[in-house]
Inverse folding.
């Protein structure tokens, strides 16, 4: 089989066979297929698509391109969650400890933030001492003791995705449903969880700009999980504004601590999405018989402080100073040289926000990486003071910047102003949650 013929087949819009897909993934991972051929293949896939069977085969081949984590010696149903990448999305730091407090086993391998979206690992590392590079055995011990641990993916988990993603990033082939679905699901399946809840974002800050595309991606991933014998459910949620108010590493940890301390109202979008994700995990994990029961247990773990206690203990077991995980000390992690309000330039109502631009603004202040080996300043970022639908007046704050290095400050201020659009009349606001996709929807 010549790979050029396989590219041609896909470019003609034909479905590939299992051997062709296996040979492609193995050949590219081993370096036998050159970048230029794989680039052409990714573009053919982006333009012609893949059917559900091809996508499942591709995921399987990618998953087995390197090591897989064996969690079978942990008790119960191993639960995981994944977000397709959001701004101000600190749900993992809330949901994972809450579900553990309700008796769940949450063994999560996570990624780093790149570009405008933050990564859970970077947020955890903003708590002094915390390590996310931990051996699989130690990781499992922590999960045994505390019900929850969050670590980085080990070096040789899905090497095929590392190579393919780097190529897609520079060949305009990221935005393809079969390529995104196989990339995400190969990593989730290789991490060893039995049940996974996905949060598929749609809107200005997401890969999937349109709601219909997001549902199609959600369905594809649920279908892959199903084909591979795992339970998968997906929420489709709005990313037309940051999910929480905080965008930045320690700032988002603080927001998680506030939520777990019962200081954020139940109507808050971050609170609602956390509960909905938690409910799906509880149901898949057999920890509640109904959604209402799951919700009640999760809220109880907020009110009695047991969720916060799990987060604190997890930080400690991962080498960090858990005493910061309390309302008494968390502010110490967000000490910066100066705080600057970005103000509205006219009266009106916030009609839309560009979440990607807000994420980029926080990144430019030092909260994120533009390149893989850039360093992060854990304390910096921004706190939104408004959400879509809020009334603003000329001179009233849109957001507060937490700044240590003001080199890019003028540009950041302009970016935030530009990202928050106002209108004279209030407009209806998108619901944060568009729907949920389960096995029953396939
Ligand atoms: N996240 C991933 O891990 N892969 C993609 O292709 C897109 C988002
Ligand atoms: Ca994330």
């Amino acid at each position: 089989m010549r790979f050029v013929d396989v590219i041609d087949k896909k470019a003609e819009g034909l479905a590939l066979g299992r051997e062709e897909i296996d040979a492609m993934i193995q050949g590219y991972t081993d370096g036998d297929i050159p970048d230029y051929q794989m680039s052409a293949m990714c573009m053919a896939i982006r333009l012609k698509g893949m059917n559900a069977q091809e996508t499942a085969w591709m995921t399987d081949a990618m998953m087995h391109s390197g090591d897989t984590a064996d969690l079978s010696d942990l008790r119960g149903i191993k639960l995981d969650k994944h977000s397709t990448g959001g701004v101000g999305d600190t749900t993992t730091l809330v949901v994972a400890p809450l579900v553990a407090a309700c008796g769940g086993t949450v063994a999560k391998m996570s990624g780093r933030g790149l570009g405008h979206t933050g990564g859970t690992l970077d947020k955890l590392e903003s708590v002094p001492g915390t390590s996310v590079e931990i051996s699989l055995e130690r990781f499992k011990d922590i999960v045994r003791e505390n019900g929850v641990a969050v670590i980085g993916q080990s070096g040789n988990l899905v090497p095929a995705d590392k190579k393919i993603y780097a190529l897609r990033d520079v060949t305009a082939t990221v935005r393809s449903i079969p390529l995104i679905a196989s990339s995400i699901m190969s990593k989730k399946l290789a991490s060893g969880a039995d049940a996974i809840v996905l949060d598929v974002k749609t809107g200005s800050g997401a890969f999937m700009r349109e709601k219909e595309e997001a549902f199609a991606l959600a369905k594809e991933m649920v279908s892959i999980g199903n084909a591979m014998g795992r339970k998968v459910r997906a929420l489709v949620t709005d990313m037309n504004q940051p999910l929480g108010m905080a965008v930045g590493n320690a700032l988002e940890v603080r927001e998680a601590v506030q939520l777990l301390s019962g200081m954020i109202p139940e109507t808050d979008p971050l609170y609602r999405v956390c509960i909905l994700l938690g409910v799906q995990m509880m149901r898949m994990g057999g920890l509640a018989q109904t959604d209402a029961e799951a919700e009640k247990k999760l809220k109880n773990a907020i009110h009695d402080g047991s969720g916060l206690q799990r987060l604190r203990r997890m930080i400690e077991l991962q080498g960090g100073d858990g005493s910061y995980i309390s309302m008494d000390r968390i502010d110490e992690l967000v000490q910066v040289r100066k705080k600057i309000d970005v103000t509205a330039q006219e009266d009106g109502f916030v009609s839309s926000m560009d979440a990607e631009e807000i994420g980029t603004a926080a990144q430019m202040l030092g909260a994120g990486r533009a390149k893989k080996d850039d360093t992060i300043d854990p304390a910096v970022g921004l706190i939104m003071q408004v959400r879509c639908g809020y009334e603003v007046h000329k001179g009233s704050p849109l957001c507060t910047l937490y700044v240590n290095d003001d080199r890019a400050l003028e540009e950041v201020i302009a970016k935030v102003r530009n990202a928050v659009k106002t209108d004279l009349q209030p407009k209806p606001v998108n619901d944060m949650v568009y729907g949920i996709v389960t096995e029953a929807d396939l």
In short: Residues 84-85, 165, 174, 179-180, 183-184, 207 surround uracil (ligand 1) (CB under 6 Å). The chain has 16 helices and 13 strands. The two ends are 34 Å apart (CA to CA).
